[in-house]
Structure to design on (581 residues):
C-alpha cells in the first residue's frame, strides 16, 4: 500500500505555494527600458486567401472512420430543441427539409429555418460540414440558429455546433434499404441540446 | 522519422490551469489566455525584420531574409509565419517589437526564471506572474504536467497531474484521488471528484506530446464550459548560435513550428477563439550582428507575437530604437523600449478583468508598470 501511494505521488502532487510577502523594489527598472513614445504601425497586409484561412465549420474528421462507400441515401430531417433541464423535446422544428448523403458527405437540399431573423437556407447549403461514419453517425459542424427571433428583436448570427457520436444518438442503419429512422443529438449550449430526426431511404 | 518530425517532438510540454470550480470562482473570466514559452531566446530581428531600418541589411548579410512578408513599409514577417500573417490580415494578431522583460544578463537560466517569475529580478519570487494573476481572479488551477511551471505557481492550492502512459499508472492515480475525495466534504470533495473524473478521461484518451497536438488539445480543453482559462506550452531550441539560417534553416524551422502551434490553438479553440489571447514569451533576443558561425548570440530585446479574437485591430506596436551602433544596447543588442511585463499585464487585464494598478502591484510586484492596454486592445 505504501509503495502504491508513493508511486502515485510521482504522478500527482498537490501544490500550495505563496506569493512573496513583501513587494521588492525595482532594482532593474528605469535605466533599461525607455517608454516615452510608443508608436502604432498600422498593418498594410492584405492576403487574398486570408478570409479562407479558417472556416467556421472546420472539423477534425481524423478521429472518425468515414463511410464513403455506401452509395446514395436521401433523408427527410428536422432539428428540434431538447431542453436540458427538463429533458423535454420541443414539438416545433427549428429547421426541416431534405438532405442527401453521398460517399459519406452530407449535402443539405431543400430546407427551411423557422427561426426567422438572419436564418435562411444558404447557411446549411454553403457552410455545413457533415459526414457519415461507418457506424452510421453524422459527425461534423454546421451553422445552427437556436433562437426564434420575434419582430423588433435584434437578429442573431448562428452558432456553430459540432455533431459527434453523442450518447443519445441513434445511428442510421446503413444496410437497410427503406424507411430507416435515426436521431443525431448535438450539444448546443447550457440550456438546450439539439436533436436531428432523420428518415432515410437508399436512392 | 525526419529531422523536421524530430524537431517537432522535442521540448514540448503543456500546462493547463485555472479551471473554474463552483464555490471558489468569484466571477467567470472574460476570456482565456495562452502563453507560448519560446526557450533559447527568439531572434526578433529574424521573426519580424525591420525592413525599413537602413542598418538591417549590413548587420544581417548572412542571415537576412530574401523574401519576408511585408507587414507595412517598416516591418516584415518571416516567411515561415504564414498562418500568423493571415491572422494579421484578418485583424486578429499583433506584434510588439523591441521589447523584453528588464533583464540584460543574457543567461538562459536566469532569463527563463525571470520571464516566468515576473518579479523584480531572477529568482526573486517562488511564484509566477500568471499564477499570481489567477490568484487575484480567485481561480484555482490545474496543470497537466508532473511539475508545475513557475509561471503558473500562485498562492491558491493548485492541483497538477501528469497524463502518464505507463502501464497501470492510471489505476493508482484514480485510487489516490478517491482517497482524497473521501477525506473532504461538500464543495472541496466535488472539486477533487472533478479532478478524478479528469484523470479517468486522460487515462482513456491518447494525449499527444508534440507541441502542435498539445496546442490543439489545450484549445479544445479551454473551449469547454468550465474548462481551464490558462495554458502554457513550451517550444525550445531557439538558441541558434550557429547556422541559424535565413528563409530556411534552424531558426526558420522553429518559427514554422511556432506558426503551427498558433494555428493548432486556433483550431482547438474553435468558437472560443473570439474570447482568446495567445502571447509568446522569450527570455531575451539575440545580437544584432551575425557571429562567426552563421548564428547570433544572446542579446536583449526581442519581439512578442500576440494572436486571438480578443484583438480587434492588427498592428505593430513599438518605439523603434534603431539599429545603428549608437542605438544598440551596449553596441550589440536591440534595445528594449517596451517593458514586456506591461504587455503581459494588458493581456491579464483583458482576459481576467483585473485593474491595471492591481496587476502591476500584485502580479508584477511593481508600482510603476506602464499601461499598454489601449495600444493592444483599442
Amino acid at each position: 500500500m505504501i509503495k502504491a501511494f508513493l508511486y502515485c505521488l510521482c504522478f500527482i502532487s498537490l501544490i500550495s505555494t505563496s506569493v512573496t510577502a513583501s513587494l521588492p523594489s525595482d532594482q532593474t527598472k528605469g535605466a533599461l527600458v525607455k517608454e516615452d513614445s510608443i508608436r502604432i504601425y498600422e498593418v498594410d497586409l492584405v492576403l487574398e486567401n486570408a478570409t479562407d484561412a479558417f472556416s467556421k465549420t472546420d472539423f477534425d474528421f481524423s478521429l472518425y472512420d468515414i463511410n464513403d462507400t455506401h452509395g446514395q441515401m436521401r433523408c427527410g430531417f428536422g432539428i428540434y430543441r431538447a431542453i436540458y433541464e427538463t429533458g423535454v423535446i420541443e414539438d416545433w422544428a427549428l429547421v426541416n427539409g431534405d438532405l442527401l448523403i453521398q460517399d459519406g458527405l452530407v449535402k443539405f437540399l431543400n430546407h427551411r429555418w423557422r427561426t426567422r431573423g438572419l436564418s435562411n437556407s444558404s447557411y446549411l447549403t454553403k457552410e455545413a460540414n457533415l459526414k457519415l461514419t461507418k457506424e452510421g453517425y453524422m459527425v461534423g459542424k454546421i451553422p445552427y440558429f437556436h433562437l426564434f427571433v420575434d419582430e423588433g428583436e435584434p437578429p442573431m448570427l448562428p452558432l456553430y455546433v459540432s455533431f459527434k457520436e453523442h450518447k443519445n444518438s441513434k445511428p442510421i442503419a446503413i444496410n437497410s434499404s427503406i424507411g430507416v429512422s435515426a436521431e443525431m443529438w448535438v450539444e448546443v449550449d447550457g440550456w438546450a441540446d439539439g436533436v436531428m430526426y432523420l428518415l432515410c431511404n437508399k436512392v | 522519422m525526419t529531422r523536421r518530425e524530430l524537431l517537432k517532438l522535442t521540448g514540448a510540454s503543456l500546462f493547463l490551469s485555472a479551471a473554474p470550480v463552483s464555490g471558489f470562482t468569484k466571477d467567470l473570466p472574460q476570456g482565456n489566455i495562452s502563453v507560448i514559452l519560446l526557450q533559447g531566446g527568439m531572434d526578433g530581428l529574424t521573426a519580424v525584420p525591420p525592413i525599413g531600418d537602413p542598418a538591417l541589411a549590413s548587420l544581417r548579410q548572412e542571415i537576412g531574409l530574401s523574401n519576408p512578408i511585408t507587414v507595412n513599409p517598416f516591418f516584415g514577417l518571416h516567411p515561415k509565419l504564414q498562418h500568423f500573417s493571415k491572422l494579421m490580415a484578418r485583424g486578429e494578431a499583433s506584434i510588439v517589437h523591441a521589447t523584453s522583460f528588464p533583464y540584460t544578463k543574457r543567461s538562459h537560466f536566469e532569463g527563463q526564471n525571470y520571464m516566468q517569475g515576473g518579479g523584480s529580478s531572477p529568482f526573486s519570487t517562488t511564484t509566477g506572474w500568471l499564477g499570481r494573476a489567477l490568484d487575484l481572479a480567485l481561480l484555482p488551477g490545474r496543470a497537466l504536467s508532473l511539475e508545475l511551471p513557475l509561471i503558473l505557481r500562485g498562492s491558491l492550492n493548485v492541483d497538477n497531474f501528469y497524463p502518464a502512459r505507463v502501464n497501470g499508472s492510471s489505476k493508482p492515480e484514480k485510487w489516490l484521488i478517491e482517497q482524497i475525495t473521501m477525506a473532504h466534504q461538500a464543495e472541496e470533495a466535488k472539486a477533487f471528484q472533478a479532478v478524478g473524473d479528469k484523470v479517468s478521461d486522460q487515462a482513456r484518451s491518447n494525449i499527444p506530446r508534440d507541441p502542435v497536438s498539445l496546442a490543439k488539445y489545450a484549445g479544445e480543453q479551454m473551449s469547454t464550459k468550465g474548462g481551464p482559462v490558462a495554458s502554457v506550452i513550451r517550444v525550445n531550441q531557439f538558441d541558434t548560435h550557429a547556422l541559424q539560417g535565413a528563409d530556411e534553416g534552424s531558426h526558420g524551422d522553429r518559427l514554422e513550428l511556432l506558426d503551427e502551434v498558433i494555428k493548432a490553438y486556433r483550431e482547438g479553440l474553435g468558437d472560443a477563439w473570439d474570447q482568446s489571447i495567445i502571447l509568446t514569451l522569450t527570455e531575451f533576443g539575440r545580437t544584432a550582428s551575425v557571429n562567426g558561425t552563421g548564428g547570433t548570440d544572446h542579446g536583449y530585446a526581442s519581439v512578442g507575437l500576440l494572436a486571438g479574437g480578443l484583438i480587434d485591430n492588427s498592428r505593430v506596436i513599438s518605439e523603434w530604437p534603431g539599429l545603428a551602433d549608437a542605438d544598440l544596447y551596449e553596441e550589440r543588442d536591440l534595445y528594449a523600449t517596451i517593458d514586456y511585463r506591461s504587455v503581459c499585464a494588458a493581456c491579464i487585464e483583458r482576459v481576467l478583468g483585473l485593474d491595471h494598478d492591481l496587476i502591476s502591484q500584485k502580479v508584477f510586484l511593481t508600482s510603476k508598470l506602464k499601461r499598454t492596454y489601449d495600444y493592444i486592445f483599442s
Notes: The first strand of chain A starts at residue 12 and ends at 15.
